[in-house]
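Can anyone check this?
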Amino acid sequence: MHFSTDKKLSAPPSEIIEISERLEKVLRAVGAARARRQLTVEEAFIFLAIGFLGISNSRSGVAITVVSCIDIAEVLKIPRETVRRKVVNLVEMQLVSMTTRGMILEAVDEWRALAAEILQYKSY
């Protein structure tokens, strides 16, 4: 059953509709990308966060550094234990590896493809 009520909005209706349509594209892209790679939603966002925090510019191109569970938990506002549990699956899928100091992104091309798909960024 669908209920509809007219709400008093602080933003113009056209802006609300535009935001909703853009959000739909992002949510569908996340769902499709996640399903193709057999990741849970949390795993997908943790994988993206590992790359986001672990990739930086360097003189020779791109530097990939170790990221801690605490860093990921802070960025995503989820418990550190959840990050740790989900990272185990990412390690099994060979998307990241564990070191004594944290995680490091292994599948950079896979990360780039997932991020590009979610952002609907066409670089090809």
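Reply from J.R.: I decoded it. The first strand starts at residue 55 and ends at 58.
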